[in-house]
Design goal:
Number of helices: 5
Distance between the termini: 11 Å
Radius of gyration: 15 Å
Length: about 150
């Protein structure tokens, strides 16, 4: 199913105007394994947030999500799987992340594992995109709810 077909079906089944727009179409992470695993956490309801580098938004010229924005989450292969609605966005330095905040991502059992995993992710992403990881880099922490899935 194409993104356009999925979006049309979403609008029809949720009684939204066909002119309803979405902010982005994306998959999580930088590898197939993690993209599909994190998608499963979203679909199961365990993952209710995501952390992104503000610098990646700026480098790609993308809008920062706001409450009420809709996005389509795909699997690694680009197949649309669900629509999320942003509920809250917080921007804070990487080194000010707390476990209370990061546990909403549903990926880690403690702050230390979140820090280790995200330090690695942002270092890898930065190498690909042209920024250098910093302990004080701004993180866009987006909370969301799944409002439609197939």
């Amino acid at each position: 199913m194409t993104i356009d077909q999925f979006w049309t079906l979403f609008c029809e089944q949720t009684k939204r105007s066909p002119s309803t727009k979405y902010l982005s179409v994306f998959h999580f992470e930088l590898t197939e394994k993690w993209a599909d695993e994190l998608l499963q956490l979203v679909l199961s309801g365990k993952k209710r947030a995501t952390a992104s580098s503000l610098w990646s938004f700026e480098l790609e010229g993308m809008e920062i999500p706001r409450a009420g924005d809709l996005s389509i989450v795909t699997d690694w292969a680009g197949n649309p799987r669900c629509v999320i609605e942003t509920t809250t966005v917080t921007i804070l330095p990487f080194d000010e992340m707390t476990f209370d905040i990061c546990q909403r991502e549903g990926e880690d059992d403690c702050l230390e594992s979140w820090v280790d995993g995200h330090r690695r992710f942002f270092s890898n992403e930065g190498a690909l995109m042209g920024y250098s990881f910093s302990e004080t880099m701004p993180i866009v922490f987006e909370e969301f709810e799944v409002i439609y899935q197939m």
